[in-house]
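During the second year of the project, the team shifted from modelling isolated chains to modelling whole assemblies. The rationale, set out in the original proposal, was that interfaces cannot be judged from single-chain predictions alone. As a representative example for this report, we include one of the complexes processed in the last quarter. Its constituent sequences, exactly as entered into the pipeline, are reproduced here:
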Amino acid sequence: MEYRNPNEVSGDYKEMLVRLMTRQIYAETATAEVFGRAISSAPNWREKELAAEFAAEEARHSRGLFNLLTDLDEDPEAIIAGRPDAGEFWGIDLDNWLDIAVFNFTVDRAGSHQIMEYRESSYVPWADSQEEVLADEEDHYDNGVENLKEFAKDPEKLAEFQTVFDRVLPNCIKRAFGRLEGPDNDFCLEHGLKRNKTEAIVNRYLEEMRGHMDGTGLTFPPLAAFDAIKCELAGSTRDILLSLQR
Ligand SMILES: [Fe+2]
Ligand SMILES: [Fe+2]
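Output from the structure prediction step:
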């Protein structure tokens, strides 16, 4: 089943659709604010310029969701007002460039893996609008990977990157991907609001990340760091994390 118009959706489907879109507009608006602050905290003009560019792109992604939610008779301003402060939302320090570099490599990319699901959504207006969003996100991630490689050249800086990464990644997996199983997941799969199980999406994300970490010296946080914040992990996900430890 596919829905091409806002007036075709109702009931439980619409409710779940709005919940997923709320999650995305939270992420897009919070990320716009992160990059906005990064204009000040970045160490050089090249990075400041990129931060400004990325902030504008995240604002455009937010606008897309804003319009889609309006078409569904929701109040996006009220929705956005319900989100925690951007730094608190992602568990990072917005005035610290290192936190922002880790964010770009870690958290922003987790969002992209969710958007890959939304691009295939049974709600076509949403699916169609995500192609452009993903193209922008590729650039953000390229910059995140480049920054990691820059940090990795200096063992002291890499160690600092690792400390922040150990804190941010478990929180990111817990927040960005949500629960592994449950009725909400089943509903999304049955109605084409997502195409893959959470386990598969998380694993795809981590395997991509591992590909970029390989050879830099950066390792996955110990499993204890995930258990400490009660981040649910499938057995197959634990195996990926265990495959690159210090
Ligand atoms: Fe975005
Ligand atoms: Fe992004």
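The two ends are 47 Å apart (CA to CA). The chain has one domain: 6-242.
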